[in-house]
Amino acid sequence: MRILPAFSVLLLPLLLSAGAEAQVNTPAPEPAQDIGAPTAVSTGQVDFGFRGTAYGDNSDEARYQRYRDLRNGPFVEGFRWGKNDDRALWAVRATNVGYRDQQYSAEYNRFGKVRASFDFNQIPLFFSEVTRTAYTTTSPGVLGLGSLPSQVQSGAATTAIYDANATPFDLRLKRTIADFRMVYSATEHLDFSASFKNTDKNGEQPWAGTFGFSDAVELAVPVDTRTSEVGVAAEWIGSRGQARVGYDGSFFSNDVSTLVWANPLRSADSPTAGPAQGRMALWPDSNLNSGSLSGSMRFGRAGQATAYLSLGSLSQNDALIPFTINAQLASPPLDRTTADASAQIVATSFSYTTRATSTVWLSTRFRSYDFDNNTPVFNVGQTVNYDTSLATLNHGTSPFSFNRKLFDVDTSWSPSSAAAFRAGYTYEGVEQSFRTFDTTHDNRLKLSADALGIRLFTLRAQYEYSHRTGTGLDEQSLDDIGEQTSLRQFDLSNRDQHRFSTIAIVPVKAVSLNGSVFVGRDTRPDSGFGLLTNDSNGFSLGADYVPNTAVSLGASYEFEKYKTLQKSRQADPGPQFEDPTRDWTTTGRDSAHTFLASADLLKLWPKTDVRFAYDFVHAESSYIYGLTVDTTLPPVEQLPDIFNKRNRLTADVRYMLSERVGLGLEYWYEKFTVDDFAFNPETLNTVSQPSFISLQSTYLPYTANTFWARITVKW
């Protein structure tokens, strides 16, 4: 544990000071009249104690922790301090001090003048503790295998040598976020604001590289990136409206921009057998700058109009890597040495809301987003296939641009306090370059009805229908890449969508019952291949019992089911390409059961709070392959079903020895079971898999018990 450095970070926000983000948009009270020194009130609280986690045999500790740090040891978890008087407010918070998921924040509010906040937050991501690899880092972004490939190439060893030489390691990533915000009120109506946010990501994450279908590798790719975001704005607020002008910038940089890894089958370059190394570009540096104007105005008591305009520029100019790393091949010349990528972005939004009568409400909104890609075409005369041979391409890149427009109109009619009816229409039009459809049009209708408090019964029913069509179909673009011309991409294909849902609530004295049902049907009538249907349905039941302020009990159950149908054809160019007897389908089925229960017993016994919670989730998935009746394809071997199940129980008891000192015990129990044919330990039982070298990252079950013993001190 690193407690002292953590508190050092905590002191920095105190010097910078900070104002709660929630208060930024809240009008500050007028300063009190100066009638002498204000009376300051200071309060604080801290939770500290010891935490321990015990695991069952062969448990996946990484999956249990994932985005948190539950190591054994002392903790300072709930430090809070605040001080306020008639003129200002100060507040400091700290959580999980010294651990990988530590958080610190500080706030300052000089009422009516300055509001500021600073937050420091670390978010760990624990991928796996059972990963193994024979790769070692020889320099940032360069992964080697030593002399092992030469032994494999000479025949002195098989690829099993990589399993024998693989060492275990923890595959982790950590995100560190520092966020500073400030608002200065120059006058009663004019505010200036500034913000700065920096996000660092460091560690490793799973990655993959390949030298062909029979020579692939899994890698732990290094991550060392940062994103810096800055914003400044001026806002004027009047009695009937407001206006805002602002600038926002986002700047991404990557210290490891290229990944190079050793070929496990070769130690020397060959013009036919392949290279001794692979190479790929990682995330490039990029910049986004945008300026915005926005405002709103009220009309009488019933209407309000808002408008927003943003102009942005996106750029990226990283150096381009050659076509091949194979020194035995003459790499074709690049059309240019850097990406020279840029785009102009224009975003707008306009809305008008009014209460036409005492029972009728109307709202309209228009939004647009124009992404104009100005990247020059990159011409490719020759390319390199699998780092083994030159190939003539004579083709250029296709810079992708799109323009999206969205129009909404909604109206609501409330003939009485017990009923409300609502109708809405939405049109979405998307124009894009280099897609099979130049333009898609999506028309949606929404209807809902609410019955409120009718004989202790509340009901809401909602229906939504969507009809999407595309124009400017370019079947030739599919034919050019060897696809079936009746294939339709799921996000562009013509589609009819129906959605119906209803929810009912029945409060009876101390008991409240609720239930809901939803049904969804998607069809794509013009898709010959690809996604054809997508259906969903489910229901939920729940009950709450609150007889008094000391007792609160609740339980709920939810069931969800999803089904998809996709169609494809297994065919090589030639006569097979048009042969329907080579068609096959995939039916996907997913279902989930979720049960939740909770009990809060507050001061049911003197000075004691007791809380229990339990949740259970069981999900299953299956993929069923089908063939035509007259199929000419070989028989299909079906894949086994996939499932996972989680049980989680928490119990928390707090007892106050006095108004300022309390004791607490907390317990978490969690059990997770999983069966996935692709990531089972039985499947990935060695690093040296057929056709690829793996990290041996598997899906494992776990059983975990976490205990807290805490002391709470208030002042």
Number of helices: 6
Overall pLDDT: 92
Q: Structural class of the secondary structure composition? A: mainly beta
Main sheet record: 26 strands, antiparallel, barrel
Helix content: under 10%
Q: Report how far apart the termini are.
A: 26 Å
Strand content: over 45%
Number of strands: 35
What is the general shape?
globular
Radius of gyration: 31 Å
What assembly state would you assign to the polypeptide chains in this entry? single chain
| Poorly predicted runs of 5 or more residues | 1-37
Describe it.
With 715 residues, this protein is mostly beta strands. The chain has a domain at 131-154 and 185-267. The chain contains six helices and 35 strands. The strands form three sheets. It has a 26-stranded antiparallel beta barrel. It has a four-stranded mixed sheet with strand order 7-8-13-14, with no helix packed on it. A two-stranded antiparallel ribbon has the order 19-20. A hairpin with a 3-residue loop joins strand 19 (379-385) and strand 20.
SSE diagram, text form:
Blueprint: H1 3-16, H2 21-24, E1 41-55, H3 61-65, E2 73-76, E3 79-84, E4 88-95, E5 103-110, E6 114-133, E7 136-139, E8 142-144, H4 148-154, H5 161-164, E9 167-185, E10 190-210, E11 216-237, E12 241-254, E13 258-262, E14 277-281, E15 286-299, E16 303-316, E17 341-354, E18 360-373, E19 379-385, E20 389-396, E21 402-416, E22 419-432, E23 439-451, E24 458-471, H6 475-480, E25 495-508, E26 511-523, E27 530-548, E28 551-569, E29 583-605, E30 608-627, E31 642-656, E32 661-675, E33 688-689, E34 692-693, E35 702-714
Parallel strand pairs: 8-13, 11-34
Antiparallel strand pairs: 1-2, 1-3, 1-35, 3-4, 4-5, 5-6, 6-9, 7-8, 9-10, 10-11, 11-12, 12-15, 13-14, 15-16, 16-17, 17-18, 18-21, 19-20, 21-22, 22-23, 23-24, 24-25, 25-26, 26-27, 27-28, 28-29, 29-30, 30-31, 31-32, 32-35, 33-34
